[in-house]
Amino acid sequence: MPQRHIPQSKTTHADTPNKTLQAKTDDSTATFTFTVNGSSQTLSLDPRTTLLDALREHLHLTGTKKGCDHGQCGACTVHVNGRRVNSCLCFAAACDGDTITTIEGIGEVEALHPLQAAFVECDGYQCGYCTAGQLMSAVALLDEPIGASDDDVREAMSGNLCRCGAYQNIVSAIQSVRANKPSSK
Ligand code: FES
Ligand code: FES
Is 68 in the pocket of ligand 1 (CB under 6 A)? Predict the structure, then answer.
């Protein structure tokens, strides 16, 4: 049974070293620019707006899902500068100058990311609500120094919950891609 905690490899943006708030703010708005899936985006929002809400409500990138909105489920996982984060725990304005990747940025219908193809092949989802977050964590995990076993993958993915209980098939999908990944050595 997965434990409900954020794995060490998943951070809130506040954990990023040397990060200072660069966005211009006045009493009611913060103006900031970041790159999302390769496109520069400038937004002026309430400085309390989360990265999750900025992506979904203002950039209409609704592939990233809101589950708990409290850092407990991982449905909102995106990459900030290549690291997986829970976007519900990040202020969008704190991402000024950052590079964001969402589920819309990792593959196309006609050119799936290998993990997307593996989730289909291994039946790694049921309702699909958690799937975008699972995939974003899994993509990041491919470049993280975790062990080779299924238990290592379960631990690394323990911040992503699946109410449908597709865990074993998710692990199978991830392991199938890891097995085919060229060694970096
Ligand atoms: S919606 Fe962000 S962790 Fe659940
Ligand atoms: S597939 Fe339904 S919550 Fe995971």
Answer: yes
